[in-house]
Design goal:
This protein is about 20% helix and about 20% strand. It is of the alpha+beta class. The longest helix has 25 residues.
Amino acid sequence: MNTKTKTKALTLALCALLLAAATALTSLAFLKSYDAVNNTFTVGKVAITLDEAKVDEYGTADTAAGRVKQNTYKLVPGHRYTKDPTVHFAAKSEASYLFVKVENGLSAIEAGTTIEGQILANGWKKLNETNGIYYKKVGANQTNSAVDYPVFAEFTVAGTADITGYETAEINVTAYAIQSDGFNTAWAAWSAGGFE
C-alpha cells in the first residue's frame, strides 16, 4: 500500500470515528428545563417618638425653637397654656396600635375643653374607663417621613381655681407602640406589650 492510500484510509477511518462520536453525543441531548424561586427577607419595625412645642413659663409657644421633652409652667387662674404632645410614627413602621398614658395632675382645676376632651376629639379612644390610657390603631407608614398624631393641644386653668397646693402638680404623657398584626383588640396588644 502506498502512502497516498494509507493516508486516504486513515482519513476515512478518522471521519468514521468523528461521525460515530457526533452521533453518540447527539443521542445524549435531553429535553430539559430549569427554574428557581429565591426568597429574601427583611425585618419590619415599629418606632415612635414623643415631643411637644417649646414654651415659656406662661405657655406661649416659641415657634423658632425646636420641639422638646419637657416644659415648666407658672400657674395663673384663668390662663390658657400651649401643651401639644405629639406622637411621631416613624417612616416605614408597620401597622400598629399607638397608646398614650396621660397623668393629669391639673384635671380638678381645668376649664374649657379638658385635656381628655381634646384627646377624644383627636380620635384617640379610651382603653378602659379608669386608667388614663388612650389608643389609636394606625396603618403602616410606607412614607419616608414620620406621621404625626397629636394627643392634645392646650390646657386652661379655671378662673375660679384655687391653685394653692398645685406647685408640684404635673401633666405627664407617655407614648407606646406595638404592631397590630396578631392582635384582635387594643387590650390584647397592650397586655402583650408589657408596658405597665
